[in-house]
């Protein structure tokens, strides 16, 4: 049994393999499956974009396909960058710069109003046309300074007060246990 995971993001793909490792399916990235389709991610919600990615690849391959649409919501920035997290400040801007821009926009803002969350929606597109989605979040706040080398994307500025660490300072195992992606993938596992 095989399934394709419709992502081009290697940070996500690593976590997906760790979290779904015990599943009774061989998991192929789009590259491994030799899939080369244009995905037009023009939805306005995480659910819409996750479904677009999963359905596009399911229709091109006829396989069971999963997709992940995720992002960072910063309450003080009216939930930006949200669904635009990957494209925030341009697709080619490094995360060192993107993270610094968010820290600058929150300069002088006290911890109690630096609340933020990561959101993850996993969509499953089945060959019979059925589609399912599952959503999960992890609550934290925007750090005062970047810290940590693990993970990817916005992890160095996403601080968990109860751990006293950013998600970039957690081990892969620790992050997967509590993360938006870990929780959403474990929910989708139940229906595969
Ligand atoms: P695919 O569409 O190919 O899967 P993408 O990176 O374009 O890859 P998204 O549109 O879902 O995917 O954007 C998600 C962005 O949200 C991602 O690029 C990160 O910037 C951020 N993000 C999501 N989960 C994260 C996590 O666990 N840690 C840090 N940043 C995360």
Structural features, described:
- This protein is of the alpha+beta class.
- The chain has a single domain, classed as Maf protein (Alpha-Beta Complex).
- Helices cover 30% and strands 25% of the residues.
- The chain contains 6 helices and 8 strands; from the N terminus they run E-H-E-H-H-E-E-H-E-E-E-E-H-H.
- It has helices spanning 10-19, 30-33, 46-61, 95-105, 172-178, 180-189; strands at 2-5, 26-29, 65-74, 80-81, 115-125, 131-142, 158-160, 165-166.
- Strands 1, 2, 3, 4, 5, 6, 7 and 8 form an 8-stranded mixed β-sheet that branches.
- Helix 5 (172-178) packs across helix 6.
- Inosine 5'-triphosphate binds at residues 7-9, 12, 53, 68-72, 85-86, 118, 151-155, 179, 181.
- Residues 7-9, 12, 53, 68-72, 85-86, 118, 151-155, 179, 181 line the site of inosine 5'-triphosphate.
What's the short version?
The protein has 192 residues and is α+β, with helices and mostly antiparallel strands. Helices cover 30% and strands 25% of the residues. The protein has a single domain (2-189), classed as Maf protein (Alpha-Beta Complex), CATH 3.90.950.
Attribute tags:
192 residues; alpha+beta; Maf protein; eight-stranded mixed beta sheet; 6 helices; 8 strands; 30% helix; 25% strand; binds inosine 5'-triphosphate
